[in-house]
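To illustrate the input format used throughout this study, we show a single complete record. The first block contains the structure-token representation of the backbone; no residue identities are included at this stage. The design step must infer an amino acid for every position from geometry alone.
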């Protein structure tokens, strides 16, 4: 088994909160991608990716997040992002990935948005 980072996952109400590691470069993505996919597949619902620790994001990480989103949408779920540092948020804006994900400044706001009635 490969040694690498592990994804910290917790369940808050019906939301799967995933803490992503600081570096989402090729090595970082490779070490967590399978764990993330399994956790999300087993949960089959609302996912909140906590990116507050992320200081580097490569295009592979963007692909991983988009793949995760596409996996849960048919199940009625979605992936929302929280805690993007300004340089990371800028990457999301420039790549237009901010149009695929709902992005929140903190966990409390993101979790409250999940429980707020839509409409």
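Output of the design step:
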């Amino acid at each position: 088994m490969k040694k690498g980072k592990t994804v910290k996952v917790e369940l808050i109400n019906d939301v799967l909160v995933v803490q992503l590691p600081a570096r989402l470069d090729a090595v970082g993505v490779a070490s967590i991608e399978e764990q993330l996919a399994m956790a999300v597949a087993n949960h089959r619902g609302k996912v909140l990716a906590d990116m507050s620790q992320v200081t580097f994001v490569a295009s592979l990480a963007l692909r991983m997040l988009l793949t995760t989103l596409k996996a849960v949408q048919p199940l009625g779920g979605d992936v929302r992002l929280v805690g993007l540092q300004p340089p990371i948020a800028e990457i999301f804006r420039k790549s237009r990935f901010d149009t695929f994900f709902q992005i929140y400044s903190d966990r409390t706001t993101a979790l409250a948005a999940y429980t707020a009635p839509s409409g």
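Structural context for interpreting the output: The chain is about 40% helix and 25% strand. The first helix runs from residue 26 to 43.
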